[in-house]
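Go through this chain.

——
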Amino acid sequence: MLELPILGFLYEEPLHGYEVKARIQDLSGHIRPVSDGALYPAISRLVKAGLVDQRTEPGSGAANRRTLSLTEAGRAELHRRLRHPKDVEITDGQRFSTLLSFLRHLPDRAEQAAVLRRRQAFLDTPASFFYRNGTPVRAEEMPDLFRQGMLRVARATSTEEKKWLAEALSALEG
């Protein structure tokens, strides 16, 4: 989950590790806090794979700072991940938001549209948080006030996202 935003933010400009962490936290908010114990091993894996370059520079204080930048292989990897996102990056709302925040870095509008079409197809598949005999339960059928609220909010969110997707696809393909 951390590798995509690391690659995406470094695509935009070289950053220090704590700047990467701050941007990822801004992107995901309180939903998924970023720990140093997860971030720095992810950065190390990307450096080891040759996707991220790391150089040491003098810091403003006594300690040196490491500046991270994307290599050409890292740029290619970001494009590959944006072009062919995993299913969970399409179906999970938070992960899709992360993907969406970097989709502009994919230079081909048709490939951008293909990713949006996958999300659109997912949203068009009938689903619910609750099922009865294998059939999704609609908000109107839910006797529980709070579960009914969950379903209504989810439906409203989905309706707006579908509307935006149609507009975005029209702009990309129009």
In short: Residues 108-174 form one domain. The two ends are 32 Å apart (CA to CA). The chain has eight helices and five strands.
